[in-house]
Prior knowledge:
- This protein has ten helices and 14 strands.
- The chain is an alpha/beta fold.
- Strands 13-12-11-10-6-9-8-7-14 form a nine-stranded mixed beta sheet. Strands 2-1-3-4-5 form a five-stranded parallel beta sheet, sandwiched between helices.
- α1 packs across α9 and α4 packs parallel to α5.
- The longest helix is centred in the last third of the chain and has 20 residues.
- It is globular.
Amino acid sequence: MTKLRIGIVGLGMAVTPHARGLMDLADTVEVAHAFSPSAERRAAFAGRFPFPLADSLDAILDDRTVDAVLVLTPANTHLDIVRRCADAGKHVLLEKPIEITSARAEAVVAVCRAAGVTLGIVLQHRFRPAAMTLAGEIATGALGEIVGCSTVIRLWRPQSYYDEPGRGSFARDGGGVLISQGIHTLDLMLSLAGPIAEVAGSALTSPVHRMETEDMVAAAVRYANGAIGTIDATTAAYPGFPERIELIARNATASLVGTALQIAWHDGRRTEIEPDRSAGGTGADPMAFPHDYHRAVMADFAAAVRAGGKPRVTGEEALKVHRLIDALIEAGRTGERVRVRSD
Length: 343
């Protein structure tokens, strides 16, 4: 089988689990180039990973043997970079969030669609074994109708994390805890429980942090199927705790806690998956998690490109969580109930 040749753009903090995953996938995926505009980052990356370096984005885009580009740059750069990749006929695997606003995110999706290239989004929580097991039980109808779903995202980031220039700002990140950290769990929640119709709640910056955007959100939500629930998200909860998704259904109650799963069935059965042994990135070290789930994202994307199909998390699919985040922020700003866009 011909290997999928990819270029990596962006060699900052996020590159490590991707690079490790790509090393595991060496039989099917080949890294043709790795690029950062920072010579210092290129040198540091070369000291850790055995991939060829490029000195410009053009070097990647001009290489006709490159099939796809993995984009790991700050969110506010995504639209411009993705547009250039799409114009060059390269498929794109894009680190979350799609962009810093939903309008720019929609533009990213549109340029890839117009160019006929595959766009995948790195939202790796869907690829955790516990999450996939629960998704399977829901898909078969075994759980029955979902009547309630609540999500708790209580993470910790020290002030030093937000002291990095641009971090926690609208201009670079597009927001705070929702779009930078909580987006993973919120995306997983939507993939399990279905779309949310409306939200009401609060979103604010707590005294724990000096930052521009929100670090604390509490909301009541109503799902499109009539189910109800809550969303509780923060980066001010020391020392950080596993994210929780609690599903109440007609035939069982399911608790997805980090990488662990417990399903208590009405007939007395129990389904359990033990957690992995990592910290899960919930505390001061946001990269304290295994690279297995990133590897699964990249394997899924590579298979989709080869088959001419769709990856599990497409751009259109990821827009759903962006629109939910918009509604949560708007509800916090106005103090009113806000409808979630469904288009």
